[in-house]
Write a structure and sequence with these properties.
Blueprint: H1 12-15, H2 45-58, E1 64-69, H3 71-82, E2 87-93, H4 105-111, H5 122-132, H6 141-153, H7 155-166, E3 182-188, H8 199-205, E4 209-214, H9 221-224, H10 226-238
Parallel strand pairs: 1-2, 2-3, 3-4
Helix pairs in contact: 2-3
């Protein structure tokens, strides 16, 4: 599951290393990508968890490995907490939800009533790339125009969704019990969106967690180092315990 403001394409590159081993489902979550955007609908934690369960039921999937990045990692963790018998393995890449982590540049911006995830100008797009990547990619001019057109059209809607998801979040720290699900935690040590110190909170809740802290990687490891991320997951998946 992708992060806030993102879509299924965030998994396209890393998935090509996985599809010879698994059937990979990378949906656009409701409210993002090509999925429905209904202003009257809810896009908070509980609504998205319910939709994911319906999605799996429609596919007749009763046991899955569940992965998520950022917001998607938060939802994956909360889904696994709700349905531990469905999730066989959990793969979290810089998941949101650890509110006691050291404040990142992104969190400090939020405190100043600025949300870098809401992009309407080329300057804001450049700043978002700086925050998301250790080494921001070069974006071709025509592609940049498409990104800006799309993001500016959904900016107001994204503000609504962001408020619903993060205005009164259930923090990882607020979960009383632990999960026994075999889990892989991946974080870039140069993450400016969610500080990698948040990994400690997830480790306390995931009893069988392995941790990978990637050097010189930002908030989106599966985009910056897709092959490495895929190989790490395959090795994790193949281990017996």
């Amino acid at each position: 599951m992708h992060g806030f403001g993102a879509d299924k394409d965030h998994w396209s590159v890393v998935s090509r290393y996985l599809t010879s081993h698994f059937t990979v489902y990378a949906p656009d979550l409701p409210g993002f990508g090509d999925a429905d955007r209904k202003i009257e609908a809810s896009y908070g934690r509980e609504a998205q968890i319910a939709r994911l369960k319906m999605f799996l039921d429609c596919l007749n999937l009763s046991e899955i490995s569940l992965g998520g990045s950022s917001m998607g990692g938060y939802l994956a963790f909360m889904f696994a907490h709700r349905y531990p018998n469905i999730v066989d393995k959990l793969w979290l890449l810089a998941p949101a939800g650890a509110l006691s982590a050291e404040p990142s540049e992104f969190m400090l911006a939020l405190e100043e009533n600025s949300n870098p995830l809401i992009v309407e100008t080329e300057t804001q797009l450049k700043e978002l790339a700086r925050l998301c990547f250790f080494k921001p990619p070069s974006i071709p001019k025509n592609f940049k125009k498409v990104l800006l057109d799309r993001s500016s059209r959904v900016a107001d809607f994204n503000r609504k969704v962001f408020e619903e998801i993060f205005d009164s979040p259930l923090a990882v720290e607020d979960i009383n019990d632990t999960l026994q699900i075999k889990s892989l935690l991946v974080w870039g040590n140069s993450d400016k969106i969610l500080d990698c110190s948040g990994i400690k909170e997830f480790q306390q809740k995931l009893v069988r967690a392995q941790t990978i802290l990637m050097p010189d990687v930002g908030h989106l490891p599966m985009l910056e180092k897709p092959r490495t991320v895929a190989v790490d997951f395959l090795n994790f998946y193949a281990e017996e315990n």
